[in-house]
Input
Amino acid sequence: IMQTSEMLRKLCMRNLVRKYCRGLTAERKVQLQQKVVTSAVFSGKKEGYLESLSQPFLDTRLKENDLNPKVLQIIRGENIKYVTPVVKYDRNGFKARERLLVLTQSSAYVVEMAKIKQKIEYSTLKGISTSNLSDGIVVIHVPEDNKQKGDVILQCEHVFEVVTKLCILANKQNLVKVVKGSLRFRVGSGKEGTMVFTLGPEPQVFKDKTGQLTVV
Output
């Protein structure tokens, strides 16, 4: 009797799950699939993760038509999936620059108005790093070759959304690292820089006296 009861309980649960899944809209399924990846990458690792659970991810923050026609002409054939405003920090002087991050089916682009400043093919992407604190810094690590100027340092308002979209499109979920204290990034020409994460009374990003990029 106990075995029969357990079997019936499992069958009932399975039917309830099946009914729930069939009732989901396509949009809701996509949301759940993305949130599962976000959980695998950030749960218990980064501040703000729990608060992000109730915030649905948008398909994109900017529409394709918001891109400059010259940029669209170059990348339209790659099937644009996601566009968002970002702040990019120069690898040397760490000056902040307003840019767009464009994710297509095959590559990530850092765009300045009508110019493509950097292209990273997903197949060559070496890693994605972010801190365990509540900042929106994302570092996209690229290979050491003549095609790339160095790793890309970005600050994103919707960091969980951006990293999730990027690692799903690139199929590089296992290459996302949530770091504590500091991280190293490639500047170019075999050189490296250091980024330090710390706590403070107000958020800021600046170059400290030792030449490091400090994120508060």
Observations:
- Residues 93 and 209 are 12 Å apart (CA to CA).
- The first strand starts at residue 80 and ends at 89.
